[in-house]
Each structure stands twice: as structure tokens, then as C-alpha cells.
Fold this protein.
Amino acid sequence: MDSVNSAGPARGPQRRRPWVAAVLAMALTALALLGVERLVAASTEAAEHAAVLDRTATLRARLEQVVNRNVLLLRGLTAHMSHYPETSEAEFTRLARALITDGPQIRNLAFARGTTLTYAYPKGPNAATIGVDVAALPEQRDAVLRAINARDVVVAGPVPLIQGGEGLIGRMPVFLSPSDGPPASGPFVGLVTMAMDSRGLWRDAGLLDPELPLRVALRGRDATGAAGDLFFGDAAVFRSDPVLLDVSLAGQGTWQLAAVPAAGWSGGGAVLWIVRALAFALVVTAGVLARLLTARAEERRRVETALRRTATVDLETGVDNRRRFEDAGAAEMARCRRFGHQLTVLAIRLSDADALDARHGAGAAAAVRRAVAAQARESLRMIDTVARVSPDVFAVLLPETEPLDAAVAGRRLIHHIDLTGVPWRDQTVVPRIDIAVTRLRREDGGIVDTLERALARLPGGLAEEAPPGRAAPPAAVA
């Protein structure tokens, strides 16, 4: 019984692990599927919007064409009346008849002296409009004043026409063109008005095509753009995330055209279910492979980073090692010789390293080496290279530096260590540090030659040109 009881608790967690793994896998799969689904839905939606945009742009171009070609005829008649404001009704009728022939959607053309309609063609069905002051009609007053103030065409409507039906009214003010001045620079004469059959315009533009795969709507009554009222189609189109395009009208103002698919936006449809089925089969396999590849890549990156650091950095002190010093020195030598600059090498030696460990305990010398390296990095310039070139010797590359200036920098470092000491356990260690300086010479074959000369000038080697400063130990300068 004891053995059975002891085995039971051990098997419980093992039995639950596959379920935990299954739940985690299902959760990850669901998240991946959600991301894929959203991506496909966005892509499908973008393609569907692009197709609707293309068809809507074609509709807009046709609508602009059928409206603006009539407005251009209105401009021509206005130019004539600007030069000949006393044109007779017979002459106006002759001109209007020719223009209506060119514009099949034109219901009538009229001329108003001031804002009162004076001539109309065809006269029969439009006789009731003669003598009407259009500025006095509440539904047309604003558009009339806009045209006069803008000195340009304004396409108003759609509005109920006095002669019956609904249409667009293009109005352009007539300003006298004096013989001795620029065109239309004279006083206000009147208005030239063109009534256009709005339904005919919608038909010719393709908006009423029963085969049109879009639901479309227009707003901007009286050419007021997106801020204007709806005047064609269903307002629900503007609430259905439509494609929106501005319709540019000749003269002043715009309309806004909205379009959605006739059956509504699909949102991806069957494509999403196909993607879901494929993704469900692939996500788990892709996740396992990605995990293995990522782990291997991370391990390789860690190894490469460690190898690069080991190859160029002294691990005990954190400064560059001798290999890095020689590489940097070769580059600096080439630069200094090209531009004629000085290159100085400062050698720094911890002269009593063995005695430090004996006096203060093992590790004291290592602490001093770290302190010297840290102080060198802090006190020297960013362009200087500090490296540990042997167990107790550091070397510094000082580009564009005179030897005496390098010696001063070295003495300043020694002085700082002398004043503060190096904390070690419960003691303060004051080491003995020697420095020597030499400069790059023409005969030096490489930076190693310069470095070896600096090392030879440390106490116990050659010495020359010791600059004034700390009396003991002196720094050799060459």
C-alpha cells in the first residue's frame, strides 16, 4: 500500500503535462489563426475597395464629362452676351437653338437682365418663367448670389423647375466686356441660365444602369461638396464605409460621390475559411521549427559575441587587449603618416604587482590593474586607445599628441592613483606605477616597433629626455 500511495502523486503531474501542453498549443494556434485571419481579411478588403474605387472613378469621370460639357456651352453663350448685352430675342433664340442641339440634356436656356428672366428658349414650355426674379425664389436665391459674387458658373440643384420636373441649373453672371478693357471687367449685366435634365445626366453618366454592380449616392446640393445635402441615392450608402470621390464641377463647387458593392462588403467570405483550414494544419509545425531555429540562432549569436569579446578585450580589466591595440595602431599609423600628424604611445607599468599580493593578499594586484584601466578610460580622450599589452603593462595610443603632453596625461593618472589609492577589502592600496612615452618615428615598420621602444624606456630600460614632474619614478620621453 505504501508503494502505491507513493507512486500516485508522482504520476499525477506527468499525466497533466500533455493536457497543459495541448491547451497551450491550442491557445497559440488560436492566436496565430486570428492574426492570419485579420491579415487575409484586410488584404481581401483592400482588394475589394480597390475594385470599387476603380469603378467609382470611371463613374465620376463620366459624370464630370456629361455635366461639364454642358457648362462649357453655357460659358460660350455668356461670353457672347458679355460683348453684346443688347442681343435681341431673335438672335438669342438662334444661338440657344444651336447650343441645345449640342447638349441633349439641356432643357432650356435663358437670359436674365439683372436677375429677372427676359429671354427663354424654347419659349413655349418656358413662357411662365419670363419675368420671374430668380433672386426672389427662396430655393434658388443663395445659388444666384454665389454665382454673382464668384463671377463664375455655379451649378445649383437638383431643384424643382418652374416649367415642371427636376433639374440642375447652371448660372453664370454676365459682366460687360468693354472695348478698352479686359473681358468681363465691366459692370454686372445679368445672368445666363441653363436648365439641365438631371435624370438624363444620371442616365448618361451610368448611375441608373441596372447592371451597375454598385450602390451609389451623391451629396453636395448646389455644389457644396461633402457638407451639402444628399440629392441622389440612399443616405445609407454614406454610412456603409463607402469609397468617396469628389466630383469637380466646371466653375465653382463640387459634389461628393459615394459607392459600395451592390451586395455589400463581403469581408473575406469563403477565402477566410480556406485560410483557417490551412493555417490550423501549418501553425503547430511552423511554431516548432521556428522555436528550434531561434534557439540555434541565439546560441550561435552568444558564441560569436563571446568569441569576438575574447579576441579583442582583456577580460580582467575590460580594456582592449594587445591584438586590438596592434590593429588600432596600424590604422592610426596609416592615418598619421598620410596627414602628417603626431602619434604617441604611452606605456604604463604596475611595477610592484607581485609585492602587492604579498603585502595585501591575493587579488590586490588585480584590483589595482582594474583601477588603472578604469582611470585611464575616464581621464583620456575618446579617440585614445587603452590596451593591456602584458600582465602588468598598459599601452595607450594618443593620436595628434606631442610626447610631453602624453607624459603630462600619464603623470596625472599616477597622481590620481597616489591620492585616492585603490580600495581593496578593508585596505587602501597605493601601488608603484611607472610610465614612459615615445612617438612614432619614420623608421618604425609598425606600431609594435613604437610600443617596444616605449616599453624599453620604462625603468630598467633606456631613459632619455625625462620631462619635469614626479621625481620618482621619472617618465622617459622619446
